[in-house]
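Appendix B. One record, verbatim.
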Amino acid sequence: MKRWKGYFLLGVLLLMACVVGIWFLNSGWETKDTQVHQLSYVYRGGIPEESQQAVKQGLEQASNDFKVEITTVAPNDKSSVLEQLELIEKEVKNGADAILIEPIKNPEIEMKLQEIEQKVPVIEVNSAVSDKKQKEGNRIRIDNYEMGQKLGHVILKRVKPGEQVVLLKSDMEYTDVEEQYKGVSDVLTKQGIAIEERSCIGEEREREMKIQSMMHKGNVNYVVAFDSTNLELLGKVKKENVAFKNILIYGMGRTNQIIAYIEEGTLQAIGVSNEYSVGYLSAQKAVQQIREQDTQENEIGFSIIEKDNLYTTENQRLLFPFVQ
């Protein structure tokens, strides 16, 4: 009888141990590899939503693969340092385990991100907060300068002696735009091509009027835009005015309308990066740092897309990665 009492007591103890173990597992005894992490993506905003779709699709796929939750937020004014600072503070206060950000190149934002990095990982997406050599492992971006150079070489094939190229400046507070601009400019000036720099910022109607006024000048032969909003406006203005039909237009970025303009010949060439990979790898990098795992560097591709190569398999995957 004593032996059976001993077995019974042992069974009770084992059952209690199992219950306690299950309780601990269900009440927060999770490892860094199994708990659901909160990532916040602070993007620049102020551009067509479809321009961000590929990045967001990459983030969404990563959220499924790595079992994380991702919040996306953007300032009302993409040039506002104050708004970006406030968003960063808010997301950290709301419990973000990592911050993914398209930072404005600014010393105040640099200081704030350095402060936050002491608490949670910070991944710079597309743009960089400064020109200083930071941890490259914390940056996800393509070689924007090289993409600018490639587009510059495409433009060179069409430029005739005595013609000039207008470069529309906007969003230069973001380093990806700055580098793309420099890449195009360096290629053209090295070959002695005349360049005219023009600023094109403001509300849509204001920018459209600036573009119309510029294109009415008889010496404008080529125009290059470095953001999808101005590029789409250039296509619209050219298409609506037969007097502009001989002006050749190039640029960076994509929307469905821009792709349609390429297809019909209104726009000549665009530089497009693999934004889907940018989104996916940004989230992956953040999760690896949260979980203290080894990270690896991945090369992110880009393409210069013209009417002739629009339907290649490679470029279709680049333009529409989430429908493959």
